[in-house]
Amino acid sequence: NDTFGYVEIDESCDLDKIEELEKEWKAIVGILGLGEFKDTALRFRKLGNHKAAGLYFPFLHCLCVDVRYPSSMVHEAFHMMDYHRGKLSERYSFYGIRRRYEECLRTSIEQLPKEDSFRTRMEGKTKYNLAYYLTPTEIFARCGEMYMVRILNVDNSLVKPEKGLEYPEDEQLDSMIAAYFNA
Asked: N or C end of the chain, less CB within 10 A?
């Protein structure tokens, strides 16, 4: 409860694992200088109905993490920071990163064969298509993960972005991310 106003732990959670996650979270809070979000609830539970490993509900001030996939926590925490600090993802100071991320992602998709499943999904009409990945809030959260792993070399169970095109590997983008989040 050092960071959040309320913490809920579902009965299906392994309490030893929760203690381990708490230590990892405290380390991340120290690295980021995160501060308090006392108006926000953190809930550990199974999120099967949502088909997501984590969720942040800005209007409910609630961060939910699927107990089976704790690596979603930092991604959702960056969504929380984005909203609580005035929609940072939509500010001019983040615009260059958004533009570079989009360029990198579009270029990577265009280089895939037409029949590639990732390209098909990106060009499709499902929820997780290109439009979803290019929303400012998603770019902000993914770049936050990239910052933690690539720039700060954080390695714990709360932040392990998957390797994939939605995490573009680009020196210019990494440099922009480092400058932004370091500031």
From this structure: C
